[in-house]
Every structure is written in C-alpha cells, then in structure tokens.
Amino acid sequence: MRADRPAKGRYREFYQCDADVVGSNSLLNEIELANIYATVFDKLGIAVDIKINSRKILTALAEVCGGADKMMDITIAIDKLDKIGLEKVKEELSQRGLNDEQIAVIDKYLGIIGSNEEKLADIKSLLGDSETGKKGIEEIEYVISSPLPAHYSIITIDFTLARGLNYYTGIIFEIKAIGVQMGSIGGGGRYDDLTGLFGVPNIPGVGISFGVDRIYDVMEELQLFPADVHVGTQVLFFNLGEIESKKAFELAQQLRSQGIRTELYHENSKFDKQFKYAEKKNIPYIIIMGSKELEEKTCVVKNLGSGEQQTLPVGDLVNFVFI
User: In a designed cystine with 60, which of 132, 169, 199, 214 is the match (CB 3.0 to 4.6 A)?
Assistant: First the structure.
C-alpha cells in the first residue's frame, strides 16, 4: 500500500507480479529476465522500451564527483529528473552539498544521448578511468549483446535511470510502454546481499516486477482486450432459499467438475436483483430451482441472450451444452 497521494498510474493499493533468481551472480539471469519482459509484453501486444542501467555506473559517477558517499544524494536527485526537470535536479544537487564542478559532471552525464553504441562511447569517456565504472559498462554490454525473442521490445541504455531504492547493486531495469502516457509498468534489478537485512548475508539475487494495474490500464487505453476476452461466470444458480441453495450448490460442483464456470448467488434475494446481477456480469445462463423444481427433481435453464428457457431433469444438467 502506498502512502502518498494517488495520481494517474499511482494507486493507493496496487498489485505486482515478480520474477526473481536468488543464489547466482551470473548475468545470464539478467538476460533471462529481459527475455521474460520481452516475451510477456509481446504476448500482450504492448510495445515496450526495456530501459537498462547499472548502479555500478552511478557509483562511479559518485566517485568522480567526490566519493561513493554521495551516491544516495545523486541517485535520489536523478530519479526525479522526469518529474522536476534538469534545472531542478541541479538545484537539488546543490542543496545536497555538491559543488558547481561536480554538478557540471552530472550535467554532462545526464546529457548523454544517441544510440546504445554512442551512449557507451560517451560513458567510457566520462567514467572509463573508474574500475567500478568499467565493471558496470561491461555488465551492460553483456546484457544488451543478447537478442530479444520478441519484435515488440527493445533494450535502451538509459543512464538517467536510477531507481531510488538503495539495495540495488548492479543492472537495473525499467519498462515503459511506447506511445502511452503512463509511468513505468515494470522494473527491478540486481540486489546482491539484500537478504543480509534479514540476517542471511552474502546471497546474491536479481528480480523484476510487472505493475499489474498499470499494465491493465495500458491495455485498456490501447484497446488491446479482445471482444471475446470475457472468461467469467457461464452459469448462475439463483438462490431461492436455504434448502434450494444447498441443492443448487451441489449441482454447481458437478458443473464445475465439467469445466463450466458456475456460481451460486450469494444470498436469497428477489428475482429482479438476481437477474440484474447476471446481466451486469454478462452471465449467459441462469438456473432456477425453487421448491416446485426441488420436489420434481428438475431445474429451469434460461439463456438470457435469447430468452429461451427449458425445464430439465437435474440428472441431465451435466450434459447440457452451455454455449
């Protein structure tokens, strides 16, 4: 649950789906995770930009600007670049104690643009004397050297990517949907020794997350949900009393065992209320079993689309074709 004020794409509560690999230092894991991103968004039909950077490069930037202890001050400010702009970032860096010369280096760093190859050339020129920087550059080169499996996705080096969480230690990811006014729809990175916070030190790990709510909103905006995506309830049993609902529940289990998505209305209510519930949820079939049907061991099956209804022996219900 988030504590700050919700805005577009920032929900008070939100869901995310994660994929993590723990116990390995291999960069093959980063490649696997990038491929997972590409494959998932390709299947969803969302064109995405997989942005990549390395916290080692940010550490090297801090070293060039006076010391690794300035790392958090720099990353927190850079992480706000999209929201407040370059000049405000420079103001914040000044307020955090960086001098004009150091801010000029960061300004040059944030100004690196072009293709991935051009960006790598510029970052080597700026930070190439730092051993930490060299290691970060090598990691990025290794990850982007592996082709993605899906045509909808590209990997873009973005040295402005900081991800303000201080437990990241290596490659970091952020996913942006192309052509949509939405923040990141996924992100993550390497977090070696995060487990040390919980008393289990020296265990490497890397992970990514999918912002489920944001992905849903992007798919709605791009109208990617097919018309036949509805996979909700197929059959609704009306609830007509305690005895009737017990029998209806028994029959619902039989239909579910046949793969038919079935539910029983949650309380004994007026017909009109239960009809409206079925219509609102686009449930195509309702089954009515009142005291008369219970006595006769029958049930009424009604197709809400056509209005056609028929009375069946309860024993024949599992053979009825609900289409």
Answer: 132
Quote the pTM value. 0.70
Nearest CA-CA partner of 210 in 76, 50, 102: 50
Contact 160, 168 (CB under 8 A): no
Q: How buried is 228 (Cβ within 10 angstroms: 0-12 exposed, 13-18 middle, 19+ buried)?
A: exposed
Reported as a pLDDT band with limits 50, 70 and 90, residue 2 is very low
Task: Look up residue 162 and give its amino acid.
Answer: A
Token pair 């916290």 in the structure block, residue: 55
272 contacts: CB under 8 Å, gap ≥ 6: none
The contacts of residue 293 (CB under 8 Å, 6+ apart) are 299, 300, 311
212-237 mean pLDDT: 86
Is the dihedral angle over the CA atoms 187, 189, 194, 195 positive or is it negative? positive
Is pLDDT of 3 > 50? no
**Cα–Cα distances in Å, from 240 out to 180, 217, 285, 289, 310?**
48, 38, 16, 7, 18
Please compute, for residue 123, the number of CA atoms within 13 A of its CA located in the half-sphere on the CB side: 31
